[in-house]
Amino acid sequence: MRTFKIGYIVGSTSAHSINRKLAIAISRLAQPHFEFVEIPLCELPVYNRDHDADYPQPGNHLKAAIESVDAVLIVTPEYNRGIPGALKNALDFASRPWGTNSFAGKPVAIAGASGGPIGTAVAQFQLRGTLGFLDAIVMGQPEAYIQLTETSIDETTGEPSESLAGFLRGYVATFEAFVAKNAEKPDDEYQESSAA
To answer: What is the pTM for the complete model shown?
Structure first.
């Protein structure tokens, strides 16, 4: 069975981010042949077009990390009815220099958690627009607007509550099928299919 490597991006740079806890909870519910690795955002400078002539190493590392995975899961908070600046900055770095957009053709799923009842819905709507422009293949359903409470994810074990886990299992199963359908095949699979 093919192994799929999934990069997850947490839109918050906080060490105590509830969205990182959610991302880890999602990864724990995945099948063993889906391997999750975090793609960090903390070292990126603020993007501007002057970087294109001599791309900073953190930008190159981000692009390489995105390009090395089969799919990306973005788990983000909502700041002031939008996506966090750190996440938008990372998307800008990933899309440049011109003609080297690392998200093009990449399967992407979105989720987000907040303490409020709308659970990052506005930020995710904005994020979908940006990812669409970047030519990513974005999973449409199910949408994951999650309101986390103190009991949603165990502080010690990181395990989600049964009610949250019930929703996440369905989300993860759909994401796994989405990745298997949309991820590029390794070169040897292309060679086998063309030789058949």
So the answer is: 0.91
